[in-house]
Amino acid sequence: MSLREKINSDYIEAYKKRDEQKIAILRLILSSVKNREIETKKEASDEDVTKVINKEIKQRLETILGLKKAERSNDALKEEKSINYLKSYLPEELNENQVRGLVNESISEINATDIKDLGKVISLAMKKSGGKAGGAIVSRIAKEELS
To answer: Do 97 and 37 meet the contact criterion of CB atoms below 8 Å apart?
Structure first.
């Protein structure tokens, strides 16, 4: 079962249980995935769905910061709950040693020698990770290895 199919079946289940928060989150994901399919003119892969979910998580993190500044902790808690729910659809993240291995492999593959090749290394390592590594950790490790 693809990730999109799983989200769709969970949406139907949440709808039957009348879980309004899950319905809203899953409807948003499905809508974003559909928009991505329209943009790319092809069916969304699991990697595309993962990118959509990561984008939603990032937006919610920014919203939480704003809510905490405005001292609206109840709304921030709802957003944190949404993030936890969204994270349940993401694949297991790679640990630091695995990411370091991908970065070193990418460095040797493109014969990177200094910090000028940082963008290429990060791009290739992210592609190789298949969405299982965060950009921040890949960037940090790539900088360490190229310095």
So the answer is: no
pLDDT at residue 106 in the model: 87
Model pLDDT for residues 73-82, shown as the tens digit of each residue: 888 888 888 8
Identify the domain containing residue 41 by its residue range: 3-87
Pair (81, 140) in one structural domain: no
Q: What is the pTM of this model?
A: 0.71
Q: What are the tokens at 132? A: 């299982």
Q: Counting beta carbons within 10 angstroms of the beta carbon of residue 147, is it exposed (0 to 12), middle (13 to 18) or buried (19 or more)?
A: exposed
Given a contact cutoff of 8 angstroms between Cβ atoms, the answer to whether 109 and 70 are in contact is no
pLDDT at 13 exceeding the cut of 90: yes
Looking at the structure, do residues 77 and 103 belong to the same domain, yes or no? Answer: no
* Placement of tokens 């492999």 in the chain: 105
CA distances from 6 to 11, 13, 58, 75 (A): 8, 10, 22, 27
